[in-house]
Amino acid sequence: MHKPVLFRVTNNLDVGGVQRRLAAVLPLLAETFEVHVVTYRGRGVFFDALRDRGVHTHFLPMRGKWSPAGIARLSAMFRRHGALVVHTHSLGANIPGMIAARLAGVPVRVAQVHVAGNHWYAGTALGRRKQAVQEALVHRLCTDRVLHVAQQSLEGFVRGTGLPRSMNAVLHNGVDFEAMLTRPAGDVRAEFGIAPGDVLVGFVGRLATGKGVDFALDFMRRLHAANPRARMLLVGGGASDAGQARLRAEAAAIGDGRVVLLAGQRLDVHACYRAFDALLFPSEELAEGMPGVVLEACAFGLPVMARHTEPVREIARYYDRIRFMDDDADPATVLADALALPPADGARFRDEFDIHAMARRTLDLYRAVLSEKGLAAPF
C-alpha cells in the first residue's frame, strides 16, 4: 500500500533554525508519508542528508518573485506525485506554494510563518503592506490553515492580514532531544583553550541584524572587567566579509583578545552546548519566531540569559532556568543569577517541545483539515 504524499516547500536547506527543524521532523513524518521537500533558492547542507534518510529532495529554482512559470512547474510536480498535503514555509514559499497547491487540487494546504518581525521583508512600509495584502488574498483563496511557531507571530499576522483567527494556529517547534543528547561530541573547551576554571558563555545564531551580536560583545566587555575568568564562544555564520572582519577586530579588542572566541558556523552545535556554562540570547523583540537556539540550550539544561521578548517568555512557561534582563543590567549580576538557578524539571518542557510531539501535532493538524472537508485521513 502506497503512503500518502506530503510536500514541504522552503527556500533552502542550509544551516538555520527552520532548516534544522525540518531536518529533524521530516524523517519522522516519513514513517507515515512519502515526504518530498522542494527548495527554490539553493540546496544546502541538509539537502543530501535528508535524501539519505528517506526524504525526496527537489531543487526547483524560481526566477523572479513568484513567477507564473515557477508556480506552474511547482503545481505540475504536486499533481504528478498525487500530493495529499502541501505545507510551505515563510512568505517566499507561502504565496507560490499555496497557489500551486490550489491549482493542483491538493486537499490539504498549510502555510507557515516563522518570524514575527520580518515575515514581510520589503524595504519600505508600503512594500511590506503590499506583501501583507498579497499574502492575505492568496490565503483567503487557497489556504486551509496558517501555522505559527509562537503566539506573538499569530497575533501580529492576524492584525496584519485581517484573516480570521480560526484559520490560524500555533505549532511549537520541536527539538530532537535524543539525537542532540546522545550524539558523540568532541571536547570544544579543549579545542578553544578554555581552562577548567573559566566560565564559558555561549552565543549561537546567525550573525545578522536583530540577533544582538553588538549587545553580546558589549555584555562580554563589561563582564570580563568584573570577572576575568569569563569567556564567550560565538557560534554562527552569515555575516559578510566586511562584517566578519569588523567582528574579529571588535572581539580581539576585548581583554587579551581571547575573551570572545569565534567558532564560525558548525554542524556539531550539540558539542558547543555541552561546553557552555550558560547561553546568552540577546536577540531583539520581533527578530525571532520560536528560537530554536533557546530550545536547544534548554534541552541541555543550560541557564539562559535573555533580553525581554515574547517568544522566550512563551518558552519560560515550560522551563524555569531563564533569567531575563534589561539592556542596562549588570552582566556579572545577570550571570551569577543565571548560574544560581536550580535545575529545571525537564519533563514538562519535553512534553511540549520534543520533536516527536511536534510530529504528532503536525499529523493531527493534517487530519483536522481533512475532517473539516469531510475526507477520511489515509494515515
Note the topology.
Elements: E1 5-10, H1 17-29, E2 34-39, H2 45-52, E3 56-59, H3 68-81, E4 83-89, H4 91-104, E5 108-113, H5 125-142, E6 145-148, H6 151-161, E7 168-170, H7 177-182, H8 188-191, E8 199-204, H9 213-226, E9 230-235, H10 241-252, E10 260-264, H11 269-275, E11 278-281, H12 292-299, E12 304-307, H13 310-316, E13 322-325, H14 331-340, H15 346-353, H16 355-372
Commentary on this structure:
With 379 residues, this protein is an alpha/beta fold. It contains 16 helices and 13 strands. The protein has helices at residues 17-29, 45-52, 68-81, 91-104, 125-142, 151-161, 177-182, 188-191, 213-226, 241-252, 269-275, 292-299, 310-316, 331-340, 346-353, 355-372, and strands at residues 5-10, 34-39, 56-59, 83-89, 108-113, 145-148, 168-170, 199-204, 230-235, 260-264, 278-281, 304-307, 322-325. Strands 3-2-1-4-5-6-7 form a seven-stranded parallel β-sheet, sandwiched between helices. Helix 1 (17-29) packs across helix 16, helix 3 (68-81) crosses helix 4 and helix 15 (346-353) crosses helix 16. The protein is globular and about 65 Å long. The model has no long low-confidence stretch (mean pLDDT 94).
